[in-house]
Design goal:
Alpha-Beta Plaits; 189 residues; 5 strands; three-stranded mixed β-sheet; single chain; alpha+beta
């Protein structure tokens, strides 16, 4: 999702939240006959709302609101669930003589493979994608609950980041490690 799409999604969520809170407070205020809630209810013109659907402009207004909603919703959904895959990045060593590109998927696979051999890790996967407009190497580790706070595991992750940086040089990518803790297995009582 691009930065603009994230901002629009947050804005829509915020407006929906504030609108829901205001509507909820208004309904509770009407229930307890609070003066400000009753005053707001008195400002609503029931005749306007009951005759709105019979006006000539209503079908056009409803169509416009529907089209804008569909386009905005589709744009946000596509932005949230579509990722641009990244497999190669150019090295800063590229020049007029030629272009040097790095195959990042092989590096990410090697790092994930090294963690798969660790007994504390039950699963290690990777993805290479654009995340918030930046090429990102993401490695997901599923670890035993006892290993999640293990200092040695955190040291191994730091060493892996250093190894990746050494392998790619000064290529401009982000590296993310996500540590998922597997469920605790309880002994039967």
């Amino acid at each position: 999702m691009s930065g603009i799409q994230a901002a629009v999604a947050r804005f829509i969520g915020f407006v929906g939240f504030v609108g829901s809170v205001i509507a909820g407070l208004w309904i509770v205020g009407l229930y307890v006959d609070h003066p400000w809630a009753v005053k707001i209810a008195d400002l609503i013109d029931p005749e306007f709302w009951s005759t709105l659907t019979t006006t000539r402009i209503y079908p056009w207004l409803a169509g416009l609101v529907g089209i804008v909603g569909i386009v905005l919703g589709a744009w946000l959904i596509i932005g949230m669930y579509s990722f641009t895959r990244v497999s190669r990045v150019n090295s800063s060593a590229s020049g007029p003589e030629g272009n040097i590109s790095l195959q990042l998927t092989q590096i990410a696979d090697a790092v994930a493979q090294s963690f798969r051999s660790d007994p504390r890790i039950s699963q290690a996967t990777y993805t290479m994608r654009q995340y918030r407009g930046r090429p990102t190497m993401e490695i997901v580790l599923a670890a035993d609950p006892t290993a999640a706070n293990n200092r040695l595991l955190l040291v191994a992750i730091d060493e892996a980041v250093a190894d990746i940086r050494a392998a790619i040089g000064d290529a401009d990518i982000d590296i993310r490690f996500l540590l998922h803790v597997t469920p605790v297995v309880r002994a039967d009582d």
